[in-house]
Amino acid sequence: MTKIKFLCATLYTLLAVGANPLGAQQLDTTTLKEMRTGDMRKVAIHNTPKAMIKAPFLNADGKNIDLSLYAGKTVLLNFWATWCAPCRAEMPSLDALNQTLGGDDFAVVTVATGRNPPAMIEQFFENTEIKSLPMHRDPKMSFARGTGVFGLPVTLILNPQGQELARMQGEADWNSSDAQTLLSAIIAGNVK
Question: What sign results for the dihedral spanned by CA atoms 49, 148, 150, 79?
């Protein structure tokens, strides 16, 4: 009887571990680094996740918010400006990515940093037909500076716990198959 209880307990444990998505889908940073192709080769993947500052920024209504609004989601956090040509060039691909992958597990979060009047942001979104991106702002650049952003565009990839997993300086085609493959792996896996 003791052997049967032991076998049942062992089988139950194995089934529980195998059914646990965190145990079944762990990715390490080496695997992610090997997955970088195309524009994604420029993504610097950290060996260990880095803590993010808890700094406020403004939503479209001018109210203070912070990244806790996106807790539990993998976030592609993009710092941009209306006057930055490379930033403007990559915004349609960020919008398309958010429309493709955005949902309960993933969000593209854009933050216009520096002097970006709301009317200019709205006009840019309208002219380029940006439909799914938030019109967040960081007018005093305190959020951007606190995260080590000193040039634009800069994109951070955050895990569901709000830690920085990776960073890229410069523009990219974020709706490319290279980007979608890398981001889908991050979204599905528990990067350790």
Answer: positive
Cα–Cα distance, 4 to 94 (Å, whole number)? 55
Burial (CB count within 10 angstroms: exposed 0-12, middle 13-18, buried 19+), residue 79: buried
Which residue's structure tokens are 């032991």?
6
Residue with tokens 């001018």: 62
Q: pLDDT tens, 155-192?
A: 999 999 999 999 999 999 999 999 999 999 999 985 55
Give the E-state strand segments of the chain in sequence order.
26-27, 44-50, 57-58, 64-65, 74-80, 106-113, 136-138, 154-158, 164-169, 190-191
**Cβ pair 82, 124 in contact under 8 A:** yes
pLDDT by residue (tens digit) across 105-115?
Answer: 999 999 999 99
